[in-house]
Amino acid sequence: MTTKGTQKKVQKVSEVKKLKKGDSLPTIKAIENNVLKCIIGQDEAVRRIITAIYRSIYLKSIKSNILVIGRSGTGKTETLKQIARNLKIPYTVEDATKYTKEGYYGNDVTDMIENLLFAANFDLEKASHGMIIIDKIDKKAGHNQGDVVGVAVLNSLLKIIEGCEFGMIDGSTFDTSNLIIVFCGAFSGIERIKRRETKAKVIGFNTPTHIEPSTEILGCTKSDLVQYGLPEEFVGRIDTIVEMKALSKDDLIKILSSSKLSIFKKYQNELKKLGITITYPRKLFERIAEKAMKTSLGARELSNVVNYIFEEILYNVLSHPGEYQKCKLDIGIVDDNMMYKLS
Ligand SMILES: Nc1ncnc2c1ncn2[C@@H]1O[C@H](COP(=O)(O)OP(=O)(O)OP(=O)(O)O)[C@@H](O)[C@H]1O
Ligand SMILES: [Mg+2]
Fold it and tell me: By residue range, what is the domain housing residue 232?
């Protein structure tokens, strides 16, 4: 007889099972909770991406090709990586700008599959349930003059989206129908298309006051994407469009203080391992966030600012092993990394 307690335990164990035929996945809620420990300020987007991915895994008859739109450093790639890690599936991040139509100089879609196989340690079955993240897809839009074959590349991607059998070098075939394909892009300037459309529809349109302009979700539609220059037949295959909002200063502060990915916390932990405890002023994270907000790199810039802060400290600490136990940061360290005291 099983008690309630053991039943609960059994359920817990099954939550971390691998994605293999017959095995159960972690619950959708468990994945969401884990991802939200890392990704800050994108709760709705995270939920929608996970749902679309679960839909493609569980509801085989409904394809889920996902497009994630968002500025640089808002968490597009990181969210997908975290989901793949939680699902324990192999993934590869591919830069669409490196791809050309077959026969041209550059990579073609078979390279994507090879990279995925590599990530799966050449386990074909595992790779066929993996995730391909195709980044910078917006740079393949027709209006980007630099890439004359952009549209042709998108069309050759349709092959794997549709689900086909790829002939491998060793004579085996690779079925793409179970792959999870996610496109990402910044689509800078798409707000202009959106604004034109909104103006045409609503006379005297005003931005609602409850939405901060910097963190606004545009509600991009397929027709906006076509106007942006993506081919219609490509856009037609996208089932879920998810937008990541631009991160606010408060989001950046929260990333520093509470995200599992916080670069500041990483330094803090590493120095702790060297026997050094850091103390810092209450306003430090705000100052770091303010500095990062001056760029358009979003949370990505936090790494640059924090790396700068710890550069001199690290040099000093590593030059004098075992000599210090405490490191006191001054608020001015954000702009001058000599402003600290080791003791
Ligand atoms: N919402 C977020 N919450 C916590 N950390 C974040 C978030 N967004 C970005 N980061 C941090 O910034 C790094 C870069 O983010 P990511 O690679 O996801 O950016 P991106 O949106 O894909 O940008 P790009 O368009 O430049 O590729 C991540 O590794 C993570 O450490
Ligand atoms: Mg990215």
Answer: 16-243
Number of domains in the chain: 2
Check pocket membership of 255 for ligand 1, CB cut-off 6 A.
yes
**Binding site membership of 39 for ligand 1 (Cβ less than 6 Å):** yes
CA of 77 to the centre of ligand 1 (A): 6
Are 118 and 66 contained in the same domain?
Answer: yes
- In this structure, the answer to whether residues 228 and 281 fall within a common structural domain is no
**For residue 326, what are the CA distances in angstroms to 237, 256, 274, 276, 308?**
56, 21, 11, 5, 19
The predicted pLDDT at position 177 comes to 86
For ligand 2, a single-atom ion, which residues have Cβ within 5 Å? Answer: 76-77
Q: List pLDDT tens digits, range 66-108.
A: 999 999 999 999 999 999 999 999 999 998 888 766 555 667 7
190 and 257 share one domain: no
199 and 269 both lie in a single domain: no
Q: Which helix (H) or strand (E) holds 28?
A: helix 28-38
**Ligand 1 neighbourhood includes 78 CB (under 6 angstroms):** yes
Return d(Cα 11, Cα 215) in angstroms, integer: 39
Q: pLDDT digit string (tens) for 41-72?
A: 999 999 999 999 999 888 877 777 899 999 99
Domain final residue pick, 218, 243, 268: 243
Say if residue 187 is in the same domain as residue 274. Answer: no
Answer yes or no: do 228 and 257 share one domain. no
Our measurement of the distance from residue 179's CA atom to the centroid of its chain's CA atoms, rounded to an integer in Å, reads 18
- Could you give the CA distance from residue 108 to residue 149 in angstroms, rounded to a whole number? 12
User: Does the beta carbon of 261 sit less than 6 angstroms from any atom of ligand 1?
Assistant: yes
* pLDDT at res. 31: 96
Which residue has its alpha carbon closest to ligand 1 atom 9?
75
Ligand 1 midpoint to CA 163 (Å): 29
